[in-house]
Automatic annotation (TrEMBL), chain A:
Gene Ontology biological-process annotations: transmembrane transport
InterPro entries in the record: Bact_Polyamine_Transport, MetI-like, MetI-like_sf
Segments forming domain ABC transmembrane type-1: 92-279
GO CC terms of this entry: plasma membrane
Membrane-spanning intervals of the chain: 31-55, 96-115, 127-153, 159-183, 204-227, 261-286
Family from the record: Belongs to the binding-protein-dependent transport system permease family. CysTW subfamily.
Coiled coil: none
Localization per Swiss-Prot or TrEMBL: Cell membrane
Protein name: ABC transporter permease subunit
Keyword Plastid carried by entry: no
Membrane topology annotation: Multi-pass membrane protein
Length: 296, 315
């Protein structure tokens, strides 16, 4: 998805003629069947989410199901002020901070690994499959292992040490895989040209590769942030005494039965949408700037 | 960690020739390339070793330890935990339940994912619209999974929308209880969350199929079914394999969806692991985790035999 994201206008131009379905003119019956399936899929994808957003705006009489009882912001206020629902504000802050740190590390490390994997080197397969292992391993098991490891070493588990590492073991494989897709579309001629013009390796990376790959790096950042912000299984045994937001939501699902839970869902979704919007917006902006530069 | 990778990339640049065009002896280039490669991936390795390799080894070691039953571990070597896990009738039940959830989820995500991707690639004629619809499918992936799961409560609950609608239309007289907190709800939640992991890789491989190939097949008299069977499915195989790895490993490693959506009625291997950890039965939990990891590794390597994902992604 990142590849598509990162290269939107590039893929658009040549593909328009190609993508036209073989049948011109009238649509075959399969079109209508599949269009219906697609519509149902999107409805099932978004429908439930919109239900809880709507239900989170009920007033104090509100329950967990329809019909809607009144309209107010009561449950949002309740969420951030009531002690009974736990430390939502604190965990919210921690999750955002953690996600920012994870994002920065993920972008830098994935970019470097992407550069490294461009050429074969002795042992690259071992590193690659270790990374795939890190991606598919059950998160809870890894989290427990990390927790026990910290315990054995006499270190305190906390969200900015053990949970940070545990989350990176999940975001980095994603980041590197996205970098693979992004790098595969990088034309090596540009890099060679930079060397021919006397650029050092660092200059060619800073002045040629990073600007060219910028949309892809934004996609990696988007993955890093959202995967970290939502990470649960690996953080459970590694976050120490202070919860991150998904852990807070987990404990809420077990003991809170009020629309507060839905209000929290609405708030986290707003955060997600701001991040998605900012990422997609900056990708489009970069591409647009590039387009106008090319013309001018 | 940021500091560490800054240092290593500095070294990577400092240690290298200015350009790849300058070519000393072959042996020298290879060793230089090896060094450069390792320097570039060293930050990645510095994360994976302490936070993936070491924890796995710790779990492996813990599975051989003895326990006092209160969370204390006695270093040693005993297979008691494995014997306990393998002898328990519960283990078989847990694996059967996990396999049932995995298979059901895999079948549904594959069917929906395949046809959604097929629709986007072959039926949407406007490329910009196709990308827009594709993004529409991916946006929820970037929002909280937990929230998306609990969002089924107002729909599936005893007083939820589906029951209300069915009661209102007179299809049923009593509200259906099996909708929420049941195996059905677990599978619905999985399919809801994981279909995207099928759509994306299948979409990617289908988008690479040359449309001329299909036109040629039509000209040669192939039926719609033949095109599907002989061209589209074989050429989407790598996407299907990648999607399968994601779906299978996530479902088999999950405990959260099973716990919440089944209302505690069902269990999976990892949810039992979670309960074991909760009562400090570390060696038994670790033994069960090691077995699960072995099963998972076997499945993933079987799938990887059919597709070289590294080549697949870089192509």
């Amino acid at each position: 998805m990142s590849a598509v994201l990162a290269d939107m206008p590039e893929t658009v131009a040549p593909a328009t003629t190609k993508a036209i379905a073989p049948s011109k003119g009238g649509r075959p019956w399969t079109f209508y069947v599949l269009a219906t399936l697609f519509a149902l899929y999107v409805l099932a994808l978004y429908g439930p989410m919109f239900c809880i957003y709507i239900l989170s705006f009920q007033d104090i009489r509100g329950g967990l199901v329809f019909p809607m009882k009144g309209q107010s912001l009561h449950w949002f206020v309740d969420l951030f002020t009531q002690v009974r629902t736990g430390d939502v504000k604190g965990s919210f802050d921690r999750s955002i901070k953690l996600a920012v740190i994870v994002t920065i590390i993920t972008v830098v490390v994935s970019f470097l690994a992407g550069l490294g994997f461009r050429k074969r080197f002795r042992g690259d397969t071992v590193v690659f499959y270790t990374m795939i292992g890190s991606l598919v391993a059950p998160g809870l098991v890894l989290g427990l292992g990390t927790g026990l490891l910290f315990q054995a070493l006499g270190l305190n588990a906390s969200w900015y040490t053990s949970a940070l590492g545990a989350q990176l073991s999940w975001t980095l494989p994603f980041g590197v895989l996205v970098m693979f897709a992004v790098m595969s579309r990088f034309n090596h001629v540009w890099e060679e040209a930079a060397y021919d013009l006397g650029a050092s390796r660092w200059q060619s990376i800073r002045l040629v590769m990073i600007p060219v790959l910028a949309p892809g790096l934004v996609a990696v950042a988007l993955f890093g942030f959202t995967l970290s912000h939502d990470e649960f299984a690996r953080s459970l045994q590694t976050a120490g005494s202070l919860n991150t937001l998904p852990l807070e939501i987990w404990s809420m699902t077990l003991n809170v039965t009020s629309p507060s839970l839905y209000a929290l869902g609405t708030v986290t979704t707003i955060v997600s949408f701001i991040v998605i919007g900012a990422s997609l917006g900056s990708i489009v902006l970069i591409q647009k700037k590039r387009g106008s530069n090319a013309k001018g | 960690m940021t500091r560490r990778c800054k240092r290593s990339d500095f070294e990577a640049f400092a240690d290298m020739q200015p350009g790849p065009s300058s070519a000393p002896s072959l042996a020298q280039t290879t060793s230089r390339a090896n060094l450069a490669g390792w320097l570039y991936v060293s930050p990645l390795v510095l994360v994976l070793v302490p936070f993936f390799v070491a924890p796995i080894l710790v779990v492996l070691a813990a599975s051989f330890f003895a326990t006092d039953g209160f969370g204390g571990l006695t270093p040693g070597f005993t297979l008691a935990s494995y014997v306990e896990v393998l002898h328990s009738a519960l283990t078989l039940k847990l694996y059967l339940a996990t396999i049932k959830f995995t298979l059901l989820t895999w079948v549904f995500t594959l069917i929906i994912g395949f046809f959604v991707a097929y629709f986007l690639v072959f039926h949407v004629r406007n490329q910009l619209l196709a990308i827009g619809l594709f993004l529409l499918c991916t946006v929820p992936f970037w929002t909280s999974n937990i929230i998306r799961m609990i969002s089924w409560i107002p729909l599936l609950g005893k007083e939820g929308l589906i029951n209300q609608a069915l009661l209102a239309t007179g299809v049923i007289r009593q509200p259906l209880e099996v909708l929420l907190f049941s195996d059905l709800a677990v599978v619905i939640a999985y399919v809801h969350q994981l279909t995207i992991f099928m759509i994306v890789p299948i979409f990617n491989s289908m988008a690479r199929i040359d449309k001329k190939l299909i036109e040629a097949a039509i000209d040669a008299g192939a039926s719609r079914f033949d095109i599907m069977r002989l061209i589209v499915v074989p050429m989407s195989k790598s996407g299907i394999a990648l999607g399968t790895i994601f779906v299978v490993s996530i479902v088999m490693g999950d405990f959260f969806v099973v716990k919440v959506m089944s209302g505690g009625g069902s269990a999976s291997v990892v949810s039992a692991f979670y309960e074991d950890v909760g009562v400090l039965q570390y060696p038994t939990a670790a033994a069960s985790a090691v077995l699960l990891t072995l099963v998972l590794v076997a499945i993933v390597s079987l799938i990887l035999r059919t597709v070289d994902i590294r080549q697949e992604i870089t192509r």
